[in-house]
Design a protein that fits this description.
Helices cover 46% and strands 9% of the residues. The chain is an alpha/beta fold. It folds into 2 domains: 2-48, no CATH class; 69-335, Aspartate Aminotransferase, domain 2 (3-Layer(aba) Sandwich).
Length: 337
Amino acid sequence: MKRWQKYLEQNGTSSGVLAMLAALDHIEEAEPQVVKSIEQELTDQRSYLKLIASENYTSLAVQLAMGNLLTDKYAEGFAHHRFYAGCDNVDSVEDLAEQELLKLFGADAAYVQPHSGADANLVAFFAILSKNIELPDLNSLSNAEWAMLRGRLVNQKMMGMSLDSGGHLTHGFRHNISGKLFESIPYSVDPKTGLLDYAALEKHVLEEKPLILMAGYSAYPRRLNFAKMREIADSVGATLVVDMAHFAGLVAGKVFTGEYDPIPFAHLVTTTTHKTLRGPRGGMVLCQKEYAEVIDKGCPLVLGGPMPHVMAAKAVAFKEALTPEFKTYAQAVVDNA
């Protein structure tokens, strides 16, 4: 710890700082180059202004929650329904993360296992396909029936915002699996205003009648009216999925409320946990009651084993997002925009 003396003099000797420095000392004994890169990243973060919208800063508590022996556990399945024995501690962590998440957003059900936002979207997509397309017992199907069902599964329509309008790769872009799994029909913003035209979208949806209407974006600098999006989805019996990865922290911090809060309106909501939420890198799904049972089956639908150490860090981040300080932070994000 001696070589950290100057750092300690500048930053104090809080338990978090001491724990992180002790961890770096220990890692250095095994692989010095890793510590060198971590130290350089710290220097870079303190020396340069980040203008990458999808990046943020995690707390020491979140960082330290990822570095523990929970990573040793395989825990396929979901809490209290595992394929392996000895998962009680992972169950406790997953339960806690979901409880904190539901407090934070107020949804009916939550799923915290996805490793990324892309995984979370796939879980949502396959949950919708399973609920709306598949027959109850796949094992009872003949090979011919299974082939017919597979044909139906990959011929459903999904409408998402086009990439050049600010949509995301996972919303039906041709080079992404979402564009191969679904018949993707993108919608665009008005070329003159740069804004989403809800009347034009409604007309487009009525013409195409998609199974999934995808709302959310990666690079659209305006709020979306989710009450209107749900109304449009309901007009053709579509499932409304909202990807709130880029603004989840503004929803959690109660900056986006009313018709701009997707939780009361979307059938399913997906997000990353590491952007405006300031958590570890990962994903999650929130949903209405009708999808609660099927999203718990993200494994084997899409995922294998979850990452328990990351779920622990998610629980810490969700707890942090419930504080008054986080609301102040979320408001400051908008005030400074």
